[in-house]
Design goal:
The chain starts with about 50 loop residues before the first helix and ends in a 32-residue tail after the last strand. It folds into 2 domains: about 1-75, no CATH class; about 95-310, pyruvate-formate lyase- activating enzyme. The chain contains 8 helices and 12 strands. It is α/β, with parallel strands linked by helices. It is globular, with a radius of gyration of 22 Å.
């Protein structure tokens, strides 16, 4: 049962009989209450998001006090309509450019001066960010009114400077900073902020490492900017070769969703490997041998290893343990004078 978060703030036009304050379709006259029922209780909608994000009848947003209370109590975190349990509070309700409390295990926070992307490989097939953003395509005033089409947010660029406590920040968790439609100048502006916010560690992850490698020579690479690429199958092992051309203090591979063995991926000069199975109602299985092989190679070559999840119907369904324990290793940044060509 989902309790209406607008119960004390939303006052729709008075109907002829008591009604539920909100519903899945924002129709305030759809669900009459029983005679004498005092508390306004919502009929559970197909998805809780519309009720929490926007009420068109009264233009009250989720940022109201009641909505924030429900958010942080984590009473509504799942969209059963799409079958996904998203792994970041931001990806459910956050309406700004940053999320201070990320549920992604290998980071502390997220920063999105760029949102939107296009699919380039099998790992994108069930993209949680695309699924979430497309739900709000066409909703006037919503941050994802444009769906998952690429959009630049210059007003978000300097947001990391407002956080004084050091954090690991996942840069552009809802897109790809090296998408072909992101101008070089905008990428340099992002880098200027990351250099200035030297007390944070920025985790820059892309499925387009070839462009990152081309721009690397024109970008500064202090120890707080980490460079990573996603590799889900052996077919995309070549991405690691481009990553090695980037003189970042930490080079990392995100093998999530892991869709096959990565025995052909060369881990030379890689500092960190993250593995994870896919989640959602169409999740593809992750074989334990694929993960075990990567963990053994990392241990042999002195590479930090992080196993995020096994995946399943929800991200937490399969747990996180490998060989009877969790693997939460982080790399130590090192200064590289040059990149491997």
């Amino acid at each position: 049962m989902v309790w209406c978060v607008h119960a004390t703030a939303c006052v729709p036009p008075a109907p002829a009989y008591p009604v539920c304050r909100t519903s899945n379709t924002h129709d305030h006259t759809r669900h009459p209450l029983r005679a004498g029922e005092k508390r306004r209780r919502c009929v559970p909608p197909r998805s809780p998001w519309p009720s929490l994000l926007d009420c068109r009848a009264c233009d009250v947003r989720w940022t109201s006090r009641d909505a924030r209370r429900m958010l942080w109590r984590k009473q509504v975190l799942i969209s059963w309509t799409w079958g996904y349990q998203l792994d970041n509070v931001e990806h459910l309700y956050y309406r700004g450019g940053m999320s201070d409390k990320s549920a992604i295990e290998w980071t502390d926070a997220t920063w999105n001066p760029v949102t939107g992307c296009t699919q380039v490989s099998p790992g994108c097939d069930h993209c949680y960010a695309l699924t979430f953003a497309e739900r709000f395509r066409g909703v006037p005033g919503h941050h994802y009114e444009q769906g998952f089409d690429l959009r630049l947010w210059p007003e978000r660029l300097r947001l990391p400077l407002k956080w004084r406590q050091p954090r690991r920040i996942f840069a552009v968790s809802m897109g790809d900073p090296f998408h072909k439609d992101v101008p070089d100048d905008f990428i340099r502006r992002m880098w200027d902020v990351m250099v200035e916010a030297h007390w944070h560690s920025f985790q820059v992850l892309t499925k387009r490492p070839q462009r990152m490698a081309r721009l690397a020579a024109s970008l500064p690479w202090p120890s707080n900017i980490w460079a990573g690429t996603s590799i889900e199958t052996n077919q995309y092992a070549w991405r690691a070769n481009h990553l090695r051309r980037v003189p970042a203090a930490v080079r990392f591979i995100s093998a999530e969703p892991l869709l096959g063995s990565l025995e052909k991926v060369d881990l030379t000069d890689i500092d960190w490997v993250i593995t994870g199975g896919e989640s959602g109602h169409k999740h593809r299985p992750c074989d334990a041998e694929w993960v075990s092989d990567l963990q053994a190679r990392c241990q042999l070559e002195g590479i930090s290893f992080f196993h995020k999840q096994w995946g399943g119907r929800t991200p937490k369904a399969g747990g996180r343990e490998l060989h009877g324990r969790t693997w939460d290793e982080y790399p130590t940044p090192r200064i590289r004078a040059t990149a491997l060509l």
